[in-house]
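hey so i finaly got around to running the thing on OmpA family protein from Limnohabitans radicicola. pasting the sequence first so u can double check i didnt mess up the copy paste, my clipboard has been acting weird all day
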Amino acid sequence: MAEADKPAEGTPDAAPAEPVRPIIRKIIVEDGHAGAHGGAWKIALADMMTAMMAFFLLMWLLGASTDDKRKSVAEYFRPASHSQIVFGELAGSNGMFGGKSIIDPEDGFPFTAKQTALLERLTPQSEGGPNADNGSSQEERNREGPQDDAPSGAAGSSSKQQDKENYDKLEKDIKQKLQDNKQLQGMKDQVNIVREKDGLRIEVIDKADYSMFSSGTADMNGKAANLIKEVAKSLKDMPNKVAIRGHTDSMGFAPDSLRNNWSLSSERADATRQILQGAGINSNRFSRIEGVADTAPFVSNNPADPRNRRVSITVLNQ
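ok and heres what it spat out for the 3d tokens, dont ask me to read them lol
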């Protein structure tokens, strides 16, 4: 060891160095306002706004609805199971302790619920649905007097009266033409006019010695075509729609033929439609053009009778 490196004699050794203390940094993050509440207030606010929107929408709908519609909505929410069971007796409220139960149908509920069909739930009476009220509700309506649908009832009655007058005039006009027109006098017995629930049906019927169409075809002969044109003249000024149906007898085609009575009756109905339209009946007035073959015979006990071959022109109710 060198002389210079030796400590001096009589000098104490150097003190040991102190250890280095680590530097500790403490970072404090303030929670702020969100620390106390989080995001729950947003959900609560959204729920409240949704409820308010639904409430105001309900109030608007109720204000825009008629009395009949509001009654229909009330009927929808009525329970449908309480009127069939006497709950007071089943619950034993008339037993040992007497008294009455809150589910007693006489005092517990201010009404007697009634089961109604699904269609009655979906379609209110004011919109053409079936009558969803009966019993006491009917009595209430009777006490209230005429409802809002009275004008529509009056309009319906007016339409029925107008149809009756038009049918009377049409029937009289056709019979008069059959009597005055020499070409049509021989067909008086072949024209059948019938009142039915759908309207006024005018049938032109074949006879054993006379046929409107050539056998197995839809070619109408001249006399029958003139009759259809006269009917068209009487129908031209009426607002009612028209339905045409073709009929045949039970005599069929050859087995190897592609034609049958269904196609023949349909073709004859359409041939009648063409003559009516050519005589002035607007195309949008035709409601149905159909052929029913021999399924609706005029003479039911003899399907082969010639009178089963006919064409029906029905003037439909308005």
